[in-house]
Structure formats: structure tokens, C-alpha cells
Design brief:
This protein has 8 helices and 8 strands; from the N terminus they run H-H-E-E-H-E-E-H-E-H-H-E-H-H-E-E. The protein is an alpha/beta fold. It has a single domain, classed as Rossmann fold, CATH 3.40.50. Strands 1, 2, 3, 4, 5, 6, 7 and 8 form an 8-stranded mixed β-sheet that branches. Strand 2, helix 3 and strand 3 form a beta-alpha-beta unit. It is globular, with a radius of gyration of 17 Å. It binds S-adenosylmethionine. The site of S-adenosylmethionine (SAM) has 24 residues, from helix 1.
Amino acid sequence: MPSDGDRSTIQNEFTRTAKTFGERTIGRFDHMGVVAFSRAESGSSVCEVGAGTGNFLSLFSDVAGHLIAVDLTEAMLLEARRLHDRMDLVIGDGGGIPLRSSSIDLVSCAQMLHHVGDPLPVLTEMARVSRKHVLVVDQISTEEPSEIEAMNAIEMLRDPSHASSRPPSALRSLLSEAGLDIVDEAIHETQDSFSKWMGADEFPQRRVDAVMSFVETRGPETGMGWTLQDGEWSFVRRRMMLLASPK
Ligand SMILES: C[S@@+](CC[C@H](N)C(=O)[O-])C[C@H]1O[C@@H](n2cnc3c(N)ncnc32)[C@H](O)[C@@H]1O
């Protein structure tokens, strides 16, 4: 569970960006085959912890009978309500999910764990609430300690609510510690441009300048594959999906 300080940093950052975030991230999971990977069955219940503006949860609109979006930040859920219909919205913390044990077929989180310094209580809660599967999707670092450190330094400069991008091995260990058996995993890569990742309409110019300077001086240390082409910096965003069952 985040500390009070971490919680208010997360809420401040996502309240500030809720509108632009909802638009910027539309479609970012479309290439990943998430629904087939999740084995979600027709009519099943699907919950997402840290659902934000609902872009990930909405992937399940055609298959699920019940969609539940849980998030700490009210402003993000209000955007979810504006952008998607048919979702039940719950303000809550992943470290204490306000749902009954074994009550939801698929309990998911996407692009949320890297905001949590200690993800074990969140994953343990997801395992508790799940009736069949837990699905974790998050951006990952390489396995190289110096690259993990540099990647997290640039991510924190961009967004003070960032806690840690983790390597695949750490995510696997965390799921296992939370009492989950991994049944499948996959990694997807996309090429993302700096200007989309750090749009001037979403971030203060001071931060944009600081992150650009980091890219130019220390980009290669991050393991993110920064390249400059025709005056535009881009990097390789790697995301991992892990499907697991409660033991
Ligand atoms: C990067 S956004 C991802 C939103 C959505 N999953 C998506 O990918 O479009 C992270 C979201 O996680 C929420 N969040 C962070 N920590 C949380 C926690 N401990 N419990 C519930 N929500 C949390 C934030 O409020 C934010 O809306």
C-alpha cells in the first residue's frame, strides 16, 4: 500500500493529467492481444486495479459481463466515465481492494505497478479477490542493474509518481511471493516518440527540458534504446503480460 506521501503524489499527478492522459493512451494496448491472452470467458467479471481512464479495461467490453474499475484517483475515474460506458467505478487502493474474496473472474492491473514502491500487498490483494486469473501488465526494464537505475531515474524525472520499472525476473518473483502460479507470459515492444511520451500539453516545460537533457547525455545508459532520427528522439517501450492463478 502506498504511504500517505506516495498516495498524494500519485493523486496529484493523475488529477493534473487526467484529461490529456485519457486521450494520449487510447489504443496503446491494442497490438497486445490482451483479451485472448487473459482467457476471459464470455460473460465473465473483470476488474482492473489502477484502471485510470479505463483504456485497458475497455478492451474487455465485448466479452465481459461486468467491468469494475478501481482507482485511487477520482479525476481519472471521472474521465473513464466520460470515455467509456458500462463500467462500475470504485475509488479504492490496490493494497485494500474493496471487493469480496474470490468474487471476480479476472483481476487485472496495467501500467500501475510501476507507481507502487512495494507491490506485494497489491498483488496479494489481487490474488485474494480473484476467482480464476490475475493479469499483470507493466512496462519493464532490462535485467542489468545499472540500466534499471538509469531507467528509473529518467522515469522519475518525467513523473514524480513513478516508483520502479522492474525487470521480468522481479515481476515473476513478486507474483510467486503473492501466492500466484504463472500460467503464461509475453513481452511486447513498441517504438514510442519523445514528443508523444512527454507532450507539452501534459507536462511542465521545465520537466520536458530536464528529461530531454537526460536523454541526450545519459540515454544509452537506460537500456531503453533511445535513437535520434530526423530530429525526433524515440525509444523502445517494452511491456510484459503475466497471467497467473491463485495457488
Ligand atoms: C499510468 S495510470 C494507468 C491507467 C490505466 N491502467 C491505463 O493503462 O490506461 C496508473 C493509475 O494507477 C492508479 N494507482 C496508482 N497506485 C494505485 C493504488 N495503490 N491503488 C489504486 N490505484 C492506483 C493511478 O491513480 C492511475 O490512475
